Protein 1
Amino acid sequence: MAESTDTKSFDFTYVIVYTSAILGAVVGGFAIWLFISVFKGGNFPFVTNDRSAFIALAIVGTTMCALVYPIRASLFKKFKWLSPFTLSAIFLGTLIVLFVILYLTNLLNSIISSDKIAMIILGSIILLKWILATVSLFVQKE
């Protein structure tokens, strides 16, 4: 009797990719908690004012992206570099980096009057990028 070679072994790629998405969501939950707490006057270690809260939000947003996209790009077969999701995420990530740099160097002071408004803008872009990444995980076809 010949043995069948059609048996599929368990692929840990999906476990790693979906785990990274869950970790990104957990970090995103922390970002939302940080965001709401700062607006309600809460205190965090190292977050002493609105400017430091803006910087913390930028760091947390970058961490969210680092937990999801590089892992997905290197492991996931469904990942496509030229898909609308990926191109939109690259655009939004570039927009986030430019916004943070321009705001922290005070080049946007004439347009954005306070750190809280800057946090709302940054948080909105991060949220949009996270939603886009999560939707792409379930929508993209192989």
Note: Helices lie at 12-39, 50-75, 84-104, 115-139.
Protein 2
Amino acid sequence: MLAPAEEAALGLRRAFVEILKQLNRDEMEEPEVPGLELDELRALLGRSAFPTISRPETARALRLLVVNGYAVELTEPRYAWSRGRTVGRRYSITTPGKAFLLQAIERVGRI
């Protein structure tokens, strides 16, 4: 049985991996405007492994990924035809983020 702090850290790591999976998937699809907005990402997480994740929890995880160099924040507003609107602050995976994601996938043995 894990201590509460270890359990929280493991949950945060799982959230990091799932966020990086979504950011990597977005990059692989090569959208005309790269990156996912916070609410887009939270909605994707809510449909997958984290149905109850809140907006503040998603924002906190993204901030930590950016601080650690695993994600980058894109701030220039751009019109996205596929979304039918102008998108603002969004997030994209970095090369170190891909390395972390690959290591996590290899550790678990699945995507």
Note: The mean pLDDT is 89.
Protein 3
Amino acid sequence: MFKNILFVFSLFLFCNNQQVVAQKAVELADIVTYFTLDASDVATIQSWDFGTEAGSPVTWSDAQLQWDETSSTYLKHGTAQITVEGVPTTFSVILSGTKIIVNRVQLNLSKSPAVPVFEMERILNAGGIKTVYQKCENVMPKSFGTLAYSLFIPNKKEAWVAYIWQCLKGECSANINIYYEKDKVEKLPCY
């Protein structure tokens, strides 16, 4: 019995590892576009089922929503291979919102010396996304900061993105937050 359980657990770990290895890297502008709403959608927010279809660039680590006491929101966790400045990097992906809707998508890169602070506006513009500066003007390079933009993508509804970064002792972390409502960006503090 114990051997059978051990075999099934080993098989589960092997299959999960194979799934992560097989995950295809996507460009940063492409994943931002992926998480925005189609212009033809009646909805103005995302549902929790979004990103679970075959071919999704995200590998979800939990199928069920997780309640987060600290932020008083529901969360869904995953990972995605995202290419930034030619470097494929694993980002954590976190959907957050109420029990009914997703109101923010977080793409987090933690403590990576491989990808330095990058110019979000230039990368998005090169990927066909028009950006309009909203708040938190910073002169790059800087060891930490916040920049927020409105996003205009062909055949998509307007969305907003906040790019927050911090570098310390040669390691950088970056958070890219995609919002479906402008007031969420307007409430962000500037660093």
Note: The helical segments are 2-22, 28-34, 120-126, 182-186.
Protein 4
Amino acid sequence: MNELLRSTEFIIKLNPTGLTEQHKRLIRYLNIYILKSLGAKDESEYYQCTEDAFKMLTAIVKQSNFNDQNADVPHSEQALEMSLDSIRDLIYTKESDIYDN
């Protein structure tokens, strides 16, 4: 495990109201993959953790309480497709949006 995960305690408080145990586990794992990706020491770990973070986020969106499987196109698919379009645009730009205030 990389130094970032061992040496620093980072607490994120969330209101778990309405979340299932599965939701909570997915959120925990998403945070782990993000931290591993940010602190990766080699290329294979960086790519694998980044891929795993995206897969975990996809699972979270698909298991959202908002997702309506009975819609013509499930909301989760629409949300993921829209997000991927935005991500695709960001991939090929030199600058990325900064969300840190």
Note: The chain is about 60% helix and 0% strand.
